[in-house]
Design a protein that fits this description.
single chain, 285 residues, Chemotaxis Receptor Methyltransferase Cher, domain 1, Rossmann fold, three-stranded antiparallel beta sheet, 10 strands
Amino acid sequence: MPTVAAMSTAEFHRLRQIIYDRSGIHFPDAKKYVLESRLSQRLGELEIENYSQYADLLSIGPYQAEEFQEMFNRITINETSFFRNVPQLEYFERETLPAILEKRRGVKRLRIWSAACSSGEEPFTLAILVHRTLGIRLADWKIEILGTDISEKALNVATEGAYTSYSIRGTPETVLHRYFRKQGETYTIDPVVRSMVAFEVMNLKDKMAARRHGVWDIIFCRNVLIYFDDAGKTQVLRTLAEQMAPDGRLFLGHSESVRGLNVPIVQLQAAQAFAYEHAPKGVKG
């Protein structure tokens, strides 16, 4: 295995631009060491001696699409768990979900998009909340929950629906007993809940991919905007707003804000909900 040369500033800028152009994720100058440390092993595996050669592979090589996916799996950290941010989920279950179900009682159809869902804990959590809210009424409803992520590796875990104790660390015991099957050290999601969720690879920069799925009643996009610059955040939020029903709701992460961005959504005045709706005409952010 060849020795990999240190990443130069020019190489960092080139790789950073490739990542930004394809995913919208921005690596500031202070994160050069992060990119280098997470990719050095990959260059060794490919027997590539420097990051310029690797950038060439990502740009003009015959396997550039496959290698970008491999690179993305290595440079992102999919930190998630079931029932993450309980106060927000309580607001969703007690306020948003009943209100939307009431509005959709005529068509009995509910559509939820979990964008940047990582390994599936979030959409499965939402499915559990929908399941226990509807109860025996579930059979009368068409429930569509889609989990999307740019990482195939993360979605492979989601598709399996089997998790370690780390993923379920914040899950109430009653939920564990009702919706999971423990096999050794693995917790497998209940088949009924599993059947409520579909998964698909999707890049949030791909507007056409988002439009293909139509309009959603509820969208969750939590803890991903922190990786975008303002231009990237604006683009993603506009896409999400475009795909949200006129009376729909968007949930963001607790550390994310639309303040200062030219986007057509406004935050609801509800403590710890981090929920948004379409802005009245003439109002931005």
